[in-house]
Structures are given as structure tokens and as C-alpha cells.
Fold this protein.
Amino acid sequence: MTELIHNDVKLIGPLEQLHEKQEYLAGAKKAFPRFSVMKVLDQYYDENGMATILDISMHTPLGYVIVNYVEHTKVVDNKVVSTVAYYDPRKLAKSFDVLEGKDLLEDDNP
């Protein structure tokens, strides 16, 4: 499956940005074992890429967190060239202690 990923692929998300195929694959290898359930809610695609809407249940140091996640993947010449991830990073950031600043870590829903 790695042959479907362009060497200069980019992943852009709220908590990290990855550039080049090896970083992209290393990021996936690090993240996927933490996922307990990935529920695809909807998916849209055409010859240029796809958008996927998911609920991801993820194991964190503070327990399980459900992340509402939207991903747009751009495809050129049958290879993934970019992925942009959209999700609210506050619960993950708090669970992994990766962001500083009280405003970013406050939960909207007490």
C-alpha cells in the first residue's frame, strides 16, 4: 500500500504537520495502534481525491477519547499527495499534554 503514497506527501492537522513519505508512514504507524474503533460516517470522492467523515475512538494516557474527524485526501496520478485533517484537538492535546495555554485546553462542554 505504500506505493500509493507520493514521496513528497504532506499531512496537515491541528496538532502536527508531516512532510515526506517516511514521516507520513511513521506518523500512521504511531497513531493507528491507539485507535480502538474507526467508524466511517460518510465518504465523498472523485478522480482528484476524497473526503472522509469519521468518529475515531482513541486510547490516550487519560483513557478513551472519541474524536469527530474529517479528512480530505488529494490524489494525483493515483498517489496520495496530501491529507488535511480537521478535528478539535483540545481533548487529545489535554490527554497527551501537547499544547500549552488554558484557553486551548478548556472543554466547551463541562
About this structure: The chain has three helices and six strands.
